[in-house]
Amino acid sequence: MKFIGIDIAKSTFVTAYPLPTGGYRTKTYPNDPKGVALFMKSFSQEGHHCVLEATGNYGMLLLYMLCKAGIAVSQVNPKQIKHFARMMMTVTKTDDVDAKLISLYGEKMCPPVYRFPAESLLILKQKKVIARQLRKQLVALSNLKESLQALPIKDKASLKSLDKTLRFLKARIEEIDADIADVASSAFEQQIASLTSVKGIGISLATSLVISTGGFSQFETSKQLARFVGIYPSYQQSGSSINIRGKISRNGDSNLRSLLYIASWSAIRYNETCKEAYERLKARGKPSKVALVAVANKLLRQAFAICKSNSRYVDGYKSTLNKNANSSCFLT
């Protein structure tokens, strides 16, 4: 298998083809449908595997066309390539060098084949991003209004314009949130129903979980999911002098972690297993925030188990799933 490394930019992408005699041949293509089509004609589908970094929206067209054509492609975390480059002691950073490194990474690590998400999931992600940006604007303008009201002389026209913009943003956010709920309930009806059956998980968190995880289709175990969300505790051990159980990794979606943390407040009141876990940790002297983060982790695992088993939540039920699968609803 030959791995083709691809370095994505806004207008172009650089490819690195491994040569039979060693080394690489690089070529630059336009990052548009014609450029991607030209790239796909430059190699045979059999025996080739494309590898690229996750670069947000700029790499989605290439991913989409490669997956649609049935060409094996992998999308890797840029941090993995960054640390791989450090391991190789690379001192030069150019688009060509990056493409070669990505190709070498694919050869050494054999990353899994990327599964392109459903169309409804892409639509939901776009709506979620827009709603998040509008909320940021709403907070910024609300703070601006408060600061202007502290002035001794106020411009009524400016405040009126600000109020009009704030009303518009609130209306647009409500409209987009309703659209997200409608699309999610229609495309992922079974999963949304299963998730909202868990005590502590509402429609907002359920929708965010489906959008961020691709309907849980990209994960085999709950540990993988917890690491992806960034709510998994870090651990350091070396010899007899270092044995540290550190903070959560915080690598994933900060908004999803916030929703899980807020949901833990309700879970410790109404979710029997989460309540027991919280009380047990508090009895051991753990701070309330640490215990709540642990409950958020447990809530995430419950959601994973419910969706993977395609069932509804039963409070107090003890899972009979294989412990090695790490998909138990209730951790001890």
Automatic annotation (TrEMBL):
Keyword set, alphabetical order: Coiled coil
Stored InterPro entries: Transp_IS110-like_N, Transpos_IS110, Transposase_20
Keyword 4Fe-4S annotated: no
Keyword Coiled coil among UniProt keywords: yes
Residue intervals of the Transposase IS116/IS110/IS902 C-terminal domain: 195-279
GO biological process, one term: DNA transposition
Domain Transposase IS110-like N-terminal as annotated: residue spans: 4-143
NCBIfam families: transpos_IS110 (NF033542)
Domain of life: Bacteria
GO molecular function, one term: transposase activity
Name of protein: IS110 family transposase
Residue ranges that the Swiss-Prot or TrEMBL entry lists as coiled coil: 131-179
